[in-house]
Predict the structure.
Amino acid sequence: MAVTSASAAEADRPARVSGIDKIERRRIALAESALKTLGELGYARTSLREIANNSEFTHGVVHYYFRDKIDLISYCVRYYKTKCARRYDEVVETATSGEELVTGFLAKMTQTLVDETPMHKLWYDLRAQSMFEEQLRPDVEAIDKLLEEMIWRILGRYADLTATTPTVDAPTAYAMVDGLFEQAVVGYAANPDKTPDLLTDRLVQVLPKLTA
């Protein structure tokens, strides 16, 4: 009887979190804490010590979970951009017309431009640095692929809803949309009032031309 009770008690206990899960959870917590500092200072001006000074974690803790600055920054941007890549899924899944899809897509894109400009600046900074830092390239390439697939899902759904066919391939569609967004990120610092509307106007012109 005692054995049965012990077994039942054991079955009722929450499953133990593995050491790997604990490490990953701490790395995510560190990344979320570091993103604000990284977004404000950029790649070149940020060090592990600077991140620690602006967070609840000590320099020793940050260094324990990330071997160097590149490791931490790569992880942070990968974590953030992976979430961004799924940002438009609901719009893609629920839109019932091409116009509704474009409206929802543009609303979310301008919102992230306004609300998360520092994070996007960090991404473009990191992507530029990857031309000089070989260690950054695999992560940058992986993130670029995720974002390319995101744009292709949107364009594919738009084509379905409008009974058209994409006129460009996935890399070209991504380059065109991302290029306009990068321009908006750069322009937002100088002209925050007009840049979101300018981005919307440009995308409204471009998106219909990507299908026929």
Observations:
- The chain has eleven helices and no strands.
- The mean pLDDT is 85.
- Residues 137-161 form the longest helix (25 residues).
